[in-house]
Structure formats: C-alpha cells, structure tokens
Amino acid sequence: MLCITRRETDPYFNLAAEEYVLKNLERDCFMLWRNEPSIIVGKHQNTLAEINADYVRENEIKVVRRLSGGGAVFHDLGNLNFTFIASGEHHQLVDFRKFTRPIIDVLQKLGIEARFEGRNDLTIEGRKFSGNAEHVYKSRVLHHGTLLFSSQITDLSNALKVDPSKFQDKAVKSVRSRVTNISEHLKAPLTVLEFRDLIMQHILESTPDAEIYTFADQDIKAISKLRDEKYVTWEWNFGYSPRYNFQKAVKTNGGKLEVSLEVVNGIIEKAKFYGDYFNKLDPEEIENALSGVEHKESSIVNSLSGFEIPDYFLNVTKDELIKALF
C-alpha cells in the first residue's frame, strides 16, 4: 500500500488527486489531506440546493463536486480527510466498516470511544464526527471520509444552511446531524497535524506492505491538468446538477418579487416572474433573455446588462433582481 500525506490545501487539486490515483496507480493507496474552507458536494446532488449561496460568496468558500455519492460536507483546516483506494472483487469492494476501522482503532488508543453508526457515520457519544462515501471504478473502490478535529462548527452550519422551499428536484439531499470535534474528547492536547501523523503511523505499522509515497513530477502535472480541466469548472461543480425547479420570493422597495426557474444541466430553460410589483415594460422580455443562460451569477449579470431593470420592475434594483435569482 502506498501511503501519501498530501500538504496541498486546494480542494480542486485534492479532489482531482483522488480521481488520478484511482484511475492511474495500480497499487492500493492511503492518503491524508486537508482543504481550505470549501463545500464538497456529492456526485448526484443539486449544488445550489446544498449551499447557502450568499454565505459562500461572502466568505469566498470554494464549492467542489466529488466522484462519490452522499451528502454535502464542509471542509476547513480543522477537518482531516482520509482516503483508501483498493482493488478487489467487485462484490467485495463496498465495505464502510472495513475502511473506517483504522480510524476507530487510533481513537481508542487515545481513550476515545468512537462508533460506526447508520450507513456511513462515525460518532462519539451519539454525535457525528465523520461522514464517509465510496465510489467504485472498474475493480477499484475509492473510500473517503471526513474527520472533524477542530473545525469551526458555526461556519459549517452557516455554509450548509439552505432554504428547502427554494428547490424542487429529485437530487440526493444531505441529512444534517449533530456534530462534534474530536479535539473536544481528547484526554491530552493534540494538534490536527499530530493527529494526522498518528493515523499515518498506525497505517504504516498495521499494513504489511505499506510504504511512504510522494507524488512525482509527472503525477503532479497530470493531477493539475485534471484539476484545471474538470474540478475547477462550473460545468462539473454546478452544471452537472440534475434537473431542478428553483423558486424564491423577496421583498423589495417595489413590492414582492417571486421567481420561478426551470433548470436543466445548470442551464435556465424557463424563467417566470410573479408579484405585486408595477412595471413600464413587459418582464417577459427579461424572462426570454434568461432562457438558455447558465444559472450562475456572472452569466445572469451579463445577460441582463442591456436592461434598465426599474423599467420592468418599478423601484427594483438590478442587485435585488439578481439576489432573487439565487
């Protein structure tokens, strides 16, 4: 088994690294890594339905889609991520208990009683500190999990706080749980990096063929290419979302403005405005202008650049209209 400690904290690179290792390295691998503040959404999720878009924008939080299914999770430097990539018989690949057992073993050595509960969670005293997900590719499985060690729980809550009434879709929805940090349960102080090193040492000592591996220049070049061509793109992180209907109502100085959007592959197919606003020109012109536009702020701002918004929604500013669309 190749054991890799990744020091990059760029979530785009780190998610690309997982795919690269899964599809290009033949040996089993174990990796430990951290991300700067980011939201990692499941492969089958509607990204906009999982994030607090205003909070994410204001705090410059990156949003990245991963290969595996499951729900959205918040990462920061107080969260440690682990990844197992292994080969085997197809029917034996998915095994959440097997890949989380080493984490429980390390915590038990530290005097913490951690448990595997539900489909894919690790808990301490009934509170979740680790969510896990898996993705099968040919005869290999990618298992990865979060380990909340000293994360900013308030940031986690705010970044994933979404109004469920905005979206109607069939995408996989995240389930929120009561969470806790591992550091709160330690008998003696430990940093997240010291905790990381304890886990790596345990894997090296308990796995017969384990050895340290460092990405070669050609590895980094290939991962960076995958990062730039896939993981950093709007098409993967937002456009890959399934069909959804978006609805939102906002109060403006011009009255109540309600928005309804039908979105497919991240592209607005139909827009409709309702409300008690007044107008000089027909808002249908703006509805038509939004058809075929990506449901992202920069694209919508560009599509509305030629319109004097108060002519269509009296006393409503362009900023208020943009806010209503997210």
Which characteristics define this entry?
326 residues, alpha+beta, BirA Bifunctional Protein, domain 2, Enolase-like, domain 1, 2 domains, 11 helices, elongated
Folded structure, characterized:
The chain is of the alpha+beta class and 326 residues long. The protein folds into 2 domains: 2-239, BirA Bifunctional Protein, domain 2, CATH 3.30.930.10; 244-324, CO dehydrogenase flavoprotein, C-terminal domain (Enolase-like, domain 1). The chain has helices spanning 11-24, 53-58, 96-109, 153-159, 192-206, 217-231, 234-239, 284-290, 297-303, 309-312, 318-324; strands at residues 2-5, 29-33, 38-41, 62-65, 73-75, 79-87, 114-117, 121-124, 127-137, 140-148, 167-169, 211-212, 244-252, 255-264, 267-275. The strands form 3 sheets. It has an 8-stranded mixed β-sheet with strand order 7-8-9-10-6-2-1-12, sandwiched between helices. Helix 1 (11-24) packs across helix 6 (217-231). The N and C termini lie far apart (45 Å).
